[in-house]
Specification:
Number of helices of chain A: 9
Distance between the termini of chain A: 35 Å
Helix content of chain A: 25-40%
Shape of chain A: elongated
Radius of gyration of chain A: 22 Å
CATH superfamily of the largest domain in chain A: Chorismate lyase-like
Number of strands of chain A: 10
Oligomer: homodimer
Structural class of chain A: alpha+beta
CATH architecture of the largest domain in chain A: 3-Layer(aba) Sandwich
CATH class of the largest domain in chain A: Alpha Beta
Strand order of the largest sheet of chain A: 4-5-6-9-8-7
Chain lengths: 255, 255
DNA sequence: AAGTGGTCTAGACCACGGG
DNA sequence: CCGTGGTCTAGACCACTTC
């Protein structure tokens, strides 16, 4: 038989998995659990920390411990259908959320910043040279879901709507294309990262110990990289899907 | 100023980041830290647990606490070059590791098992119907790196090398093609998952609290799904790269 | 045998949120 | 004000590794 804190964790995990404790429900207090297991606070708190690490619960100081919503968002990062339908990415994002019964919101912000090493090497510009950063904080069901920073070389953005501080309805990719920068492909890097920087924690409203997922897309014309889109997702809230090849005949959704 | 355990964690984190403590080095013992900070064991252990969650250290019972190797493996899950060069996936994997100065190893195992719900829905076979499972445990630098389970519908595998208990040199995709099952595309699902099941923890030699990344590839012919390849990676040890579109002119490597 | 991390007890004080 | 989780002290015993 495992040790006490593991038994407590296993018991609570079962209650959550079998639905006795549903999303949003409050768990027994630490005092309750101490009484129930005739244990001291240490193993009780260790069990709760384990579950918090698993993303099953959230603790709220002075209020209690609550079962976390477990509905990861599914996003098609590359989709056969879309490539052949000319929908703008922003619209695709919104319609994909709606299809999953989620409410999408976003805030925009435009800044001109010196390129960090990570941005410069991908856009192939000099470090510290100016790039346009368009930040989009996306919310799902009124909770922050991702921080998306898109970067453009300044020489490309200059004099275009890319410098607009607002959402560009037809999509930045279309703007780039009109300016003669037609994207022909992109490279996506997917990298889980252990707990985020403090500012990311705030933006995404993450508890400590919750990892994030970077999705870094570098888009190219036939000549050069023209766009870098850096998404940071809460790791336990996201599922990315890449569809490759000719899947016309295959359009069912795996679960 | 933050609380004690956060200061201890921050101090140790700095020592690791600035190289004072290098990969493989042993950290001060809990007793040392208690003396150094004139603290009790609780905040010391909490600090160490924080770092363990961040994937920075490993604790080894009775031996000490050690700085963890921090060199994520980069794998091209989809690559323009490869699609046009006809290298078998297994070879591509090995050569990619070699290019990063890593030593690759793998063990094979073949079993015939009833399809779980997750497998059945993706391969579009009945739940509990028989499928062929080929398990490949991959090691990098003599440490387990991923567990890869490939599943094939039994009617397709029957009478082919897919039932062989050994590695198939030219690759299973080639075998499938010879049998008339030519893959035309695939769907990849990328899903971070909070700490893994106990058996996965053992196979991947993961500490508690370390998340994993599922990469689930369902490959299709023009008619049906014929292959399901389910990779489980230690989340902090992997970076996946997808190259899409015509990137012939663009073949530099982002960092 | 000595030292290490893993587990657990029994207390304490605090800040914060809600009646 | 009271209950909650967050932090911390000061001990204890254990299993295991290393010498």
């Amino acid at each position: 038989m495992p040790v006490l804190h593991e038994r407590i964790a296993a018991d609570l995990r079962s209650l959550i998995h079998d639905g006795t404790l549903a999303a949003g429900d409050r768990l027994p207090t630490e005092q309750d659990l101490m009484a129930q297991y005739r244990a001291s606070r240490t193993p009780v708190r260790q069990a709760l920390q384990t579950l918090a690490n698993e993303g099953l619960i959230d603790t709220a100081t002075s209020r209690g411990t609550f079962v976390r919503e477990q509905r990861p968002l599914t996003l098609h990062a590359a989709r056969y259908e879309r490539e052949h339908r000319e929908e703008s990415p922003a619209d695709a994002y919104r319609s994909e959320l709606l299809a999953q019964g989620r409410a999408a919101g976003q805030t925009f912000e435009m800044r001109i910043v010196p390129a960090s090493e990570a941005v410069a090497s991908r856009l192939r510009v000099a470090e510290q040279s100016l790039v346009v950063q368009r930040r989009c904080i996306r919310t799902v069901d009124a909770r922050p879901s991702s921080v998306q920073d898109s970067y453009y070389p300044y020489d490309i953005a200059d004099g275009t709507e890319i410098l607009s501080p607002n959402d560009v309805k037809r999509g930045i990719i279309a703007v780039l294309a009109e300016e003669g920068h037609v994207e022909v492909g992109y490279v996506d890097e997917i990298r889980p990262r252990m707990p985020p920087q403090d500012d990311e924690r705030r933006l995404l409203q993450l508890g400590p110990g919750v990892p994030v997922l970077d999705q870094i897309r570098t888009a190219y014309t036939a000549q050069r990289p023209v766009r870098l889109t850096w998404n940071v997702w809460a790791a336990d809230g996201i599922r990315l899907v890449y569809e490759l090849g000719d899947l016309r005949a295959m359009h069912d959704e795996p679960r």
